[in-house]
Structure formats: C-alpha cells, structure tokens
Amino acid sequence: xxxxxxxxxxxxxxxxxxxxxxxxxxxxxxxxxxxxxxxxxxxxxxxxxxxxxxxxxxxxxxxxxxxxxxxxxxxxxxxxxxxxxxxxxxxxxxxxxxxxxxxxxxxxxxxxxxxxxxxxxxxxxxxxxxxxxxxxxxxxxxxxxxxxxxxxxxxxxxxxxxxxxxxxxxxxxxxxxxxxxxxxxxxxxxxxxxxxxxxxxxxxxxxxxxxxxxxxxxxxxxxxxxxxxxxxxxxxxxxxxxxxxxxxxxxxxxxxxxxxxxxxxxxxxxxxxxxxxxxxxxxxxxxxxxxxxxxxxxxx
Length: 300
Hints:
The chain has one domain: UDP-N-acetylmuramoyl-L-alanine:D-glutamate ligase (3-Layer(aba) Sandwich). It is built from ten helices and 13 strands. Strand 11 and strand 12 form a beta hairpin.
C-alpha cells in the first residue's frame, strides 16, 4: 500500500496517576512513569507496527530525552526524519489521572513549536503517498506554517490527505473557521465529539458529521465507549461501528492515535468504511490494554 507520511509532534509523556483524592497544598501518593508520546509520533508508531511504510517528520531537542524518543521511533521500523533543535528542549506532556480516572494534560510543545517548512523532506511527497497531519501541529501558531506548507505540497503532488482535530480546548482557541480553512483539500477528518462540536457548533455527533462533510469528503468521529461513525459527502447514510468492550489499563493513553493508525491502512486500500472502523477499534483496544501511548514491542 501507499507510504504514509506523518507530520506531527514528538513528546515525552509523564503519566501521573493519583491513588487518592488530590491533597491541595500537600502530597498525594501516585505512580509517575514516563513514556514516548506525541500524537503524530504515536500514529506513526502504530502504523509502522501494522506493517505500513511510514515516515515521521518532526522536531526534537538536542537533549538526551530527544535522542531517546527518536531512537524509539526507529525501533518501530519507520523512516524517522526528525530535526534536532539546538535551543528548545524536546516537548513534554504531563498527563494527570485522578483516583477516579479523570484526566487532564499539561503540555509544553518545546521543539515541536519550532517546526519549519525547511524541515520538510521534499523526497517524501509524491502521488503514491498519503499525508497525515497532526492537529496539534496546525493549532500551534509557531509550527502552523510548516503544517500548511506540507498540506500544500501534498495537494500539488497528488497525495491523499488526512488531518485530526488535535484537542478541543486549543482548537477552540485557534478558531473553527481558521482550522477549516487551513485544512482545505484534506480528504479525511478525524475528530472526537468535543472537537466536532467546536468545529460545527452541533452537540450531536451525527449532525456534526453531516455539517463537516461540506468541508471534508470523509469524516470519522470517535464516540468514546460508544464506538465511532463515518460520514461521506456522497452518501446520506452513516456507518456506525460499536467499540470493542475493553477494561483499560490504568495508565493507558493515546487510544485515539492508535484508532487513526488502524483506520488508515484499510481505508487507503479501498476497503469499506465499516471494515476500516473495525480495524481502528481493534488497534485502539490494543492500546487500551497497555500503559503508555505507543505500541509495546514486547507484544508485537
């Protein structure tokens, strides 16, 4: 199948899971573990594990953490085109999980925010490939120009294009109309319910999906435990597939990135959207069974 080029963020995830209610101004017993992360890098890693010819384009710091993160990517068998930033550190995301399982993220993009058009390798753009752009790279003002240049180069060379919505809070700050304009020409949008609501003003996923098909020929909305749906500009009916029942690992994160990586190969191969959604749920379920956001090579 076609080579998939992923433009996106490379991060270290520090997952802090509290065992008790947070004690304000004091200590709370917790488990704190670091993993490789970054939505773009996660998608690329899961694609590579699935046997897809994958190229990841991103930026890291000159620190030991950045080197470790890049070596991890190469360990998945992908073509890593990571540029080293001499000034900014590798990005970090602190994932805070309460004793009830609620989550919030504190993100410092670090070197990711400095991704430049000059960092884009021209040789990976061509009509036989597919480009996936992480929404975070578009939402971040400092890396947006590089993401937009990548989208333009993909359109000019005849690549198919997919994008994701990143995260709903920064997406709302960036503005729905802006995001829709920046992603002009993408064939496929991935979003969750909150992101779809930001982009359309509709709270119901089905209604939001129909609105979004005015901009994107294909739309996939992740419905969390309820599964996911696919909508198309050329069809009136929606394809809805329930999620696999899973008991998540306490430290699992990044199932949405695995979902994208599961959907893309069958979709690019021309399979029915239902088959693509089933494959997406399968990979997302695997991600939920393990800690961290990347594939566990010991289980591959």
